[in-house]
Design goal:
globular; four-stranded antiparallel sheet; mainly beta; 2 helices; five-stranded antiparallel sheet; 171 residues
């Protein structure tokens, strides 16, 4: 058994800059309607939000919680099905910390559960919200204190399809 990665064709999303304020972008799902439903019903295919080219000039001092499908006006809750993970830069992606050649960071967040929850609302647009959080000190969050903005160069949706050994990968 092995997995084959496939990037879904979503309309282009311009680069995004994360700051000390929440940032929301939308992914147009209308072009993916015929593709998404079978993936949501599959027991083996995985769907991920992919962030590429993630970089900052220096350590940002902030972590961004990522919510997929969270409706406007709904309070972010890390226990909800819409919470998919956090963007935190340490070393990779921070230009001032590069010891050799700079490498931007990349993040993959599983979003199948969030997509199922958002599809129940028949949404044509999939909101992706980045909510800044302060770092934890002794288990307690400090208020966000942004030292350097973070730029996300590319946002997309990726699928990992399980293939059984001996089968020909789909093209």
């Amino acid at each position: 058994v092995y997995f084959v990665e496939e990037r879904l064709a979503v309309p282009p999303i311009p680069p995004v800059t994360l700051s000390s304020e929440p940032t929301t972008i939308s992914i147009d799902l209308r072009t993916l309607n015929n593709t998404i439903q079978p993936l949501l019903e599959s027991a083996t295919d995985q769907i991920a939000l992919e962030l590429q080219g993630v970089e900052a000039e220096s350590a940002p001092g902030v972590v961004w919680d990522v919510f997929v499908g969270l409706s406007e006006g709904t309070a972010p809750d890390s226990q909800s099905p819409f919470f998919v993970g956090s963007v935190a830069l340490f070393g990779t992606g921070i230009r001032s910390e590069a010891t050799n050649e700079f490498q931007p960071a990349k993040f993959l967040f599983p979003i199948k559960q969030a997509l199922v929850a958002s599809r129940q609302k028949n949404a044509e647009q999939l909101p992706v919200r980045f909510v800044p959080q302060g770092v934890l000190v002794d288990g307690k969050p400090l208020p966000p204190d942004l030292k350097s903005a973070v730029r996300i160069g590319r946002i997309g949706i990726m699928v990992e399809r399980m293939q059984k050994s001996g089968t020909v990968p789909r093209q």
